[in-house]
Predict the structure.
Amino acid sequence: MRGLMMDQPLLISGIIDHAARYHGDTEVVSVGIDGHRDRTDYAGVRKRSLKLGSALLKRGMKKSDRIATVAWNNFRHLELYYGVSGSGLVCHTVNPRLFPEQLVYIMGHAEDRIVFFDKTFLSLVEALQNQLPNVEAWIMMEDHDEELAKEHSWLEFYEDFIATGDDDFNWPDDIDEWDASSLCYTSGTTGNPKGVLYAHRSTLLHAMMSATPDVMGFSARDSMVPVVPMFHVNAWGSPYSAVLAGSRLVLPGPFLDGESLVTLFNEEKVTISAGVPTIWAGLIQYLETSGNKLPHLERTVIGGSACPPSMIDKFRDNYDVDVLHAWGMTEMSPLGTVNHLKNKHLDLDADKQKEIRLSQGRPPYGMELGVFDDEGNQLPNDGETQGNLHCRGGWVLSDYYLADPDTTIDDGWFPTGDVATLDEDGFMQIRDRSKDIIKSGGEWISSVDLENLAMAHPCVADAAVIAARHEKWDERPLLVVVRKENDETGAGDILSFYSGKVAKWWIPDAVEFVDEIPRNATGKVRKNVLREQFGDVLMET
């Protein structure tokens, strides 16, 4: 017997419809590339998204065609999120920080038909144009600029394009919740970047769970800044989940330095934000040197890579900002876990609570985690036994886009490539990437733990730990450090900082000082580059 309930598909267009209907006058603030702040609201975003969808279909776009964006977090990008997916097309967000060769591969592999881009990326687009013959239109996300139009005959302009849409357009009625909605490519895999093709249904499930109190906790009382770019896993889904909740949205554009963010947070009375540790490190540095505070910011979600405990302490102790440590992957839409205490933890002392908060947190409903040994046997969730972290759930990919069949899922689970522990409550602690963990004399050493400790040293601006080859122990940890400006602290002082904090045999054998830690387009350390540079230094001593 079937239940007698309405069958209403879970569609991305439903999010902006709801926001316009019940939060229509809630403000959307957008910082342009010139620093000017545009202001609209959800009713305005929906109206223009519909007109954009009409313009795309009138241009000849067909269901499931891929439409690329190369843009910062701004109101036009938000309109593309809803106008493209809402009209049955696939919104393909492209990370402009990737190497040009990767961009050509990604946009060719996706077979993008139209590319929308911010003026910032005009020179990048010019370099790509002749290498992507399948792209039919290159549309700059600006008002009409006659001077640029004369200089670039191939160039179109967003406001001209959207003006061709119909004011009375309605979302198509032939879209199924299982239809593809958006596409992101991950560079965290071997070989060429791989595409993750999201569905309307998976995106809605992810958005609804993300907005719940034990995940991002968005509400109509919040003013939210997604610092994580909209080209990085859909800004962790916040342009969907924050809009679904009716949060006021403040889009920072290209200005992600500490001073710009602090000014924006304070002037727009931002209550919640989300971003990667490297961004927050710059913000904290500005706060410390300027003496500014964050009187309105209540909490921030930190993910993308391990958050140093010292950063959590500074936010909490110096600025009264609650840090929500999170973990996820492009393949997971991306949220897998967020760290919130449970009721039984509230009576613990501050040190015990802090210890719990250092983990990446626990999964919400809809996400299941497991740790497995190399033979595929599931290991106990005891908080001690570490193994290969796998996941499954309603917003986890089943395979990569246009990939060989059966290359992703292992007996119903997706292998994340992380090594982790899980406790009985589901709190997950990343110990390392499987390719980065250090095996010294048959025993495991976590590079993540060593990096976190190094970042707490007062003279260290940035740090990474790699496995260096060793004649006796096979591998030993090597610490790579960027010192703070004008600092001359020696290797011995930094290594002595580990004493009493980790087992003696965990302490790195040596320190290499560099001017900069190499990172990829999403801010993760490129340890393969460091291993190529320093992997043999312990063999030479």
About this structure: The mean pLDDT is 94. The radius of gyration is 24 Å. The chain has 17 helices and 24 strands. The first strand starts at residue 27 and ends at 31.
